[in-house]
Amino acid sequence: MNRTFVLWGLTCPASFSAPFRNVPAMDIQAQEGIEFFLEKKYCVAKGNVRIKQGETTILCQKIKIFFRSAGLSKSPEIKYIVATGKAIVYRGANELKADRLVFYVKDQKLLAQSYFDFGVNLFQRERDFSMQARELRYDLNSQKGIATGGAILTHPKGRFRSNEICFSFSKKSPQPLKILAGLENLNKDSKFLVQAKGNVAMMYEDWKIISKEAFYDEAGEKLQLLGAVQVSNGTQNFGTTHHAILDLKKRFYKIKALKKRSCILMIPVHQTLSFKKFKRK
Fold first, then answer.
1. Which residues of the chain have pLDDT under 70?
2. Burial per residue of 102-118, b for 16 or more beta-carbon CB atoms within 10 angstroms, e otherwise
3. CB neighbours (10 Å) of residue 264?
C-alpha cells in the first residue's frame, strides 16, 4: 500500500507551508511509509521512494529529510534530503545516478557520491554528454558542476579524463565559470565550457592531448592547455611546452610564450615541429 505525504502542501496527513519563495511543493511517496522523529528533526521514508518537486524527480529506496526545527506546527524548514539505494534524479534532459545523494532543496543543488570509482553517472541527453566520477556537485538551476575522483567526461567528438573537471552547459545563463574569468580567447556566449585540472588526458577527433590543465570552449571550438603540454595528431608530434592553444575548428596549434620564460618549447629527439593547417578528410 502506498502512503503519500506532501511536504509544503495542503493535503493530509502532513501539511507544511512553503518556507521559501518560488519553491514548489514537494510530493513524497513510499511503499513502506514515512516515520517522523521530531525530536531529532528528521523523518525517514522507505521502499521505492519517489520525490517530485517541480521539474525534479528523485527515485531511491530510502530517504532522510532533515528539518531546521522539531515542531510540525511551525512550518518547519527542510535543510536537506539524503537519498540512498540506487538513487536517480531526473530533471529535463538530465539524469544523475549515484549510491548516495544529498539534495539541498532551497538552493536546488546536489551532492552525488559513490563508494567506488566512476560510480556517479550524469547524462545530458540533449547534448549526448556524460560524466563519470566518484563525486559530483551539481547545480540544477545553473547546470554547472564539479566532478572529482578520476572524472571522465564524454561527448560526441571526444573525451576528457582528469582528477577534477568543472563544467557548464547552461542555456539560461551562458556565462563562463567563475574560475575561468580572466582567461583570454574564451567565448563568453559559449553554451558549454569545461575546465579540467590535474593529469589531463584528452582525445578530440584525431587529436591526442596531455597536460596539467585544459580549458575547453565548445562554441569557439578552442582548447587552452597549461603545464607539460603534449599534443599529437596522427603521426605529427608537437613536442612539449607550457602553454598552447589548439583551435579545433581551424585545426591549428599555437604555442604561447609565458612571462619570464625564454624557452617555451622542448622538442624531443627525432621529432619534428609543424604549424601547418590540416585539412579535414
1. 1-24, 70-76, 169-192, 257-281
2. bbebeebbbbbbbeeee
3. 15
Q: How many CA atoms lie within 13 A of 169 on its CB side?
A: 19
Q: Give the Å distances, CA to CA, from 179 to 31, 111, 168, 182, 223.
A: 44, 20, 11, 9, 16
**Distance between CA 29 and CA 41 in Å, rounded?**
20
Residue 258, all three cell numbers = 609565458
User: Side chain identity at 50, as an amino acid letter?
Assistant: R
pTM, entire model: 0.77
The four Cα atoms 66, 145, 89, 49 give a dihedral, to 10 degrees, of -20
Would you give the distance in Å from CA 57 to the centre of its chain? 18
Distance, in Å, from the CA atom of 112 to the CA atom of 88, rounded to the nearest integer, reads 10
Torsion sign (Cα): 114, 62, 13, 54: positive
Residue 244: all three cell numbers together: 598552447
Beta bridge partners of 83: 63, 101
Look at residue 208 in the predicted model and tell me its pLDDT. 94
Contact predicate 63/49, CB 8 Å:
yes
Contact between residue 41 and residue 66 where contact means Cβ atoms under 8 Å apart = yes
Cell of 260: 619570464
